[in-house]
Design goal:
Order of helices and strands: HEEEEEEE
Structural class: mainly beta
Radius of gyration: 14 Å
Distance between the termini: 14 Å
Strand content: 35-45%
Largest sheet: 5 strands, mixed
Number of helices: 1
Shape: elongated
Oligomer: single chain
Number of strands: 7
Strand order of the largest sheet: 1-2-3-6-5
Amino acid sequence: MSTTDHIYNDSYKVIMAAESMEISIDSIRYRLMPKTKTAVVISDSSKYQGEIQIPSEVIYRYYEFGIIQSMTFKVNTIGEKAFFNCSLLISIDIPDSI
């Protein structure tokens, strides 16, 4: 399972009202879909490199009323061209959830 040191300043209502949100967690870029609690690995403008391990779940942490909350998203898709033109990418470990 993956986590991040960054905690976002969103509220649960804002998160759930969003169709999707794009964020980076542990150097992997995701599109999170709050209504289905799923995540898609997407292209990153800085280009992936080295060895990438895609987790089966990611945790989105946020503050609400001064308290750290979290929401877990199941990673179930790799987006089209997510790794396109990543010439320095050595390997990708893909979980069974994809």
